[in-house]
């Protein structure tokens, strides 16, 4: 690797370690992340696993059918994440497989040559499947040295990210050369990878796995149960999903006015990051709204105005309960989160103007009439109000969402074929 990369990584690693350490004093869950990401590697219990790396929740959800495909083949699977929410999602989805020693989950070490070498020597993976954009120079160089194939699946690369990568061609081009194949979500992404130095023969357009979403049966059953237990029949349920600061405060302030017009409306709010759960609870109290919390096993009853979904791994349930949704990270400048979970359940979506993380998906849903973009929380409430007042308009948006999902499915089969071909080369 270039000297500057190693130096920069060493500096960033120390700053990141300090940040995580400071959090770990108050949040014990961070201690496991610190240990595994900075060199205290847990023992390996699987022999020559298929390794899947998924950064966080969204990537883990996209990888779910791939992981299940491998498990159905009787193959051992190692899953790594870089966030606690991603780690928790794996443990929720594959609890039985972890218990049966068919799957291991760990945090990915930082990308130093020594830690990556130690991790790969410890696990001896048969192949690596990377989900979306998570590519690291030392990781790929060491895999290439050991002749371990790697497939970048469901790859997406925005124009903004491509311009950033283009400034570091001495680092990026070898990474792309070390990848065995790249399964791009769309032709624009494929062109950008080729423009950065990937061999055209390595890049294939497969579509996005995220259109092949299927809500887990357990989540849908829980939603049915809660709808009965909470007596939600006839009540408009509004969902603010994966919110960031300051979106929670803005949404809650705007909802208070909407609630005056629709006093039976229930707002479910699910902050993206667990460390914000208590802060959002305080924001709800500041608005004077009655609320209950999932973490306290409190039900949403007839007097509840807001339900704080301060849990992990239950997003499908909240979408299944909802009539309409706002997908967060889009009023803030985070770039937005994936609106397809909502769309797959026929839930119309409102998002802010910052949606560069899912630009093409947002455009598809907008063109179909399943998603509306706005500039602020008051406008979110106005769209929600319009949908609540016009059942026909809301149903049209819901039908459009389902139609977009159906029209774009098929990527899973194409990418599983690539996985099977890759594994045949390792026999």
Multimerization state:
single chain
Can you tell me the CATH superfamily of the largest domain?
A: 3-Deoxy-D-manno-octulosonic-acid transferase, N-terminal domain
Measured as a percent range, the helix fraction is 40-55%
Give a quick account of the main beta sheet: strands, pairing sense, barrel closure. Answer: 7 strands, parallel
- Helix/strand structural class: alpha/beta
The number of domains: 2
Estimated share of beta-strand residues: 5-15%
Spatial strand arrangement across the major sheet: 3-2-1-4-5-6-7
Task: Show unreliable segments.
Answer: none
Radius of gyration, in angstroms, nearest whole number: 22 Å
CATH class designation of the largest domain: Alpha Beta
Overall mean pLDDT stands at 92
Number of helices: 19
Which geometry do the CA atoms define? globular
CATH architecture of the largest domain: 3-Layer(aba) Sandwich
Number of strands: 14
Structure commentary:
The protein is of the alpha/beta class. Helices cover 50% and strands 14% of the residues. The protein is built from 19 helices and 14 strands. The strands form 2 sheets. Strands 3-2-1-4-5-6-7 form a 7-stranded parallel β-sheet, sandwiched between helices. The protein has a 7-stranded parallel β-sheet with strand order 10-11-9-8-12-13-14, with helices on both faces. Helix 11 packs across helix 14. The protein is globular and about 65 Å long.
Task: Sum this structure up briefly.
By secondary structure, the chain is α/β, with parallel strands linked by helices. The chain has helices at 3-24, 29-37, 57-72, 84-93, 95-99, 113-123, 137-145, 159-166, 169-178, 187-195, 217-229, 247-261, 277-286, 315-321, 340-344, 359-368, 377-389, 391-407, 411-424, and strands at 50-53, 77-81, 103-107, 127-131, 150-155, 181-184, 203-205, 237-243, 266-271, 291-293, 306-308, 324-327, 349-351, 371-373.
């Amino acid at each position: 690797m270039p000297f500057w990369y190693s130096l920069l990584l060493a500096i960033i690693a120390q700053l990141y370690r300090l940040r995580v350490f400071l959090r770990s004093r108050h949040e014990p869950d961070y201690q496991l992340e610190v240990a595994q990401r900075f060199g205290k590697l847990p023992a390996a219990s699987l022999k020559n696993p298929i390794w899947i790396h998924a950064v966080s929740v969204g990537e883990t959800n996209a990888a779910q059918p791939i992981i299940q495909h491998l498990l159905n083949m009787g193959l051992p699977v190692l899953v790594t994440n870089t966030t606690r929410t991603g780690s928790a999602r794996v443990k929720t989805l594959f609890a039985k497989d972890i218990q049966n020693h068919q799957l291991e989950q760990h945090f990915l070490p930082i990308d130093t040559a020594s830690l990556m070498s130690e991790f790969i020597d410890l696990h001896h993976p048969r192949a690596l499947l990377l989900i979306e954009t998570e590519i690291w120079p030392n990781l790929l160089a060491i895999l290439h040295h050991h002749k371990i194939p790697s497939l970048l699946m469901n790859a997406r690369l925005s124009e903004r990210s491509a311009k950033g990568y283009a400034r570091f061609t001495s680092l990026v081009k070898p990474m792309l050369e070390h990848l065995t194949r790249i399964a791009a979500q769309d032709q624009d992404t494929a062109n950008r990878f080729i423009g950065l130095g990937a061999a055209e023969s390595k890049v294939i357009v497969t579509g996005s796995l995220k259109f092949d979403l299927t809500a887990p049966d357990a989540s849908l059953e829980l939603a049915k149960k809660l709808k009965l237990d909470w007596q939600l029949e006839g009540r408009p349920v509004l969902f603010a999903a994966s919110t960031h600061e300051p979106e929670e405060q803005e949404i809650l302030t705007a909802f208070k006015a909407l609630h005056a017009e629709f006093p039976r409306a229930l707002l479910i709010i699910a902050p993206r990051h667990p460390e914000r759960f208590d802060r959002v609870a305080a924001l709800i109290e500041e608005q004077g709204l009655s609320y209950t919390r999932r973490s306290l096993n409190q039900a949403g009853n007839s007097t509840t105005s807001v339900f704080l979904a301060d849990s992990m791994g239950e997003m499908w349930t909240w979408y299944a309960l909802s009539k309409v949704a706002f997908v967060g990270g889009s009023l803030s400048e985070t770039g937005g989160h994936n609106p397809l979970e909502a769309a797959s359940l026929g839930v119309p979506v409102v998002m802010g103007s910052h949606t560069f993380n899912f630009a093409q998906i947002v455009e598809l849903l907008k063109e179909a009439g399943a998603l509306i973009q706005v500039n602020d929380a008051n406008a979110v409430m106005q769209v929600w109000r319009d949908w609540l007042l016009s059942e026909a308009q809301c149903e049209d948006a819901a039908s459009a969402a389902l139609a977009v999902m159906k029209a774009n499915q098929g990527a899973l089969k194409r990418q599983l074929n690539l996985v099977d071909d890759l594994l045949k080369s390792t026999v």
